[in-house]
Design goal:
mainly beta; 4-stranded antiparallel beta sheet; about 0% helix
Length: about 300
């Protein structure tokens, strides 16, 4: 079966001095942010992809960024230190929220309430009030890292991926654990709900994608050997009908979000892809452009010419 689209690499963005760990949406569909081991936070414009603006610099690595459109703030996970709240209009740090000395692996926000969820390397999940800009709750979920967080589109619960191989389903307000999903055999580096909330998809160090039927008490719907090595991230196309995964195996893969079938592989041999681990993805509404970042210190921009969606 022929792939429903063609992939073309349209830009390689350089400027980071070390591994690039994360990319995050900006205020416009053509904008995004990046950061990594060098502590530099850069803003990029897909209409002028070879020019970047340095918007912040912190003293240690950054694994997680989160853009807040209503406030035009960028949350920066300053590892082993704090959550920095960057006011992009003022180009200044609005608030520094002290955190435990641990890696900050993920930052996600509630869709309708001023709440942020912070996953830490010490096994704690923090709840931050985005109006008070303060930590209001902390729960210890594991002796190992909280690697990933996903908020259900309906807003009543969240999924948390842990390095102890489990996925926990929590009440979004109280952080009470409602259910544990135990099927992966490695750290769960990424979790994502389908935009309609029907499924939860997880990716792990065990190189498997697991699909869980969220509407049926999270029954396991599918288990797919998706990559050769660790799956680092899952992201959805803006129309919700495709999703992409990236891996330590240096590849990016495109999947059908309804059938969970593999549609396209983007790698070094076929598309001049990354030379080392691909860490994070951002799928822009700007001309279906997919952005990937890597340990090779570069960011790639991919144009997808869609035929059937």
């Amino acid at each position: 079966m022929a792939s429903p689209f063609q992939v073309q690499k349209i830009a390689t963005l350089t400027g980071h001095r070390d591994c690039v760990y994360t990319v995050e949406r900006g205020g416009q569909t053509n904008q995004f942010f990046s950061s990594g081991a060098d502590g530099m936070v850069a803003q990029w414009d897909l209409t002028q992809p070879n020019t970047a603006q340095l918007v912040a610099k912190v003293s240690s690595s950054v694994y997680a960024l989160k853009y807040l459109p209503e406030q035009n703030w960028l949350l920066i996970g300053h590892n082993q230190n704090s959550l920095e709240v960057l006011d992009l209009a003022q180009k200044a740090i609005h608030k520094t929220i002290p955190l435990p000395q641990a890696a900050i692996f993920d930052i996600q926000v509630h869709a309708t309430q001023p709440l942020a969820y912070i996953g830490l390397g010490n096994g704690a999940l923090l709840l931050v009030d985005l109006e008070k800009l303060a930590v209001i709750k902390s729960v210890q979920l594991s002796e190992k890292s909280v690697r990933s967080v996903a908020v259900h589109p309906a807003g009543q619960e969240i999924a948390v991926g842990l390095s102890d191989h489990r996925i926990l389903i929590l009440d979004a307000q109280t952080l009470v654990v409602k259910q544990a999903l135990e099927s992966h055999t490695g750290s769960v580096f990424t979790v994502a709900y389908t935009p309609n909330g029907e499924y939860l998809i997880s990716g792990s160090r065990d190189a498997h994608l697991k699909v869980w039927k969220a509407t049926q008490n999270y029954q396991e719907h599918a288990s797919i050997i998706a990559h050769l090595f660790t799956i680092n991230h899952i992201t959805f196309h803006p129309n919700g009908r495709l999703f992409a995964t990236c891996s330590m195996d240096k590849s990016v893969k495109i999947w059908d979000a309804q059938t969970f079938k593999l549609l396209k592989v983007i790698d070094k041999a076929r598309h001049a892809g990354h030379g080392t681990s691909v860490n994070k993805l951002f799928w822009s509404g700007h001309w279906n452009q997919l952005v990937s970042c890597s340990d090779d210190r570069s960011i790639s921009v991919w144009a997808l010419t869609l035929k059937e969606i």
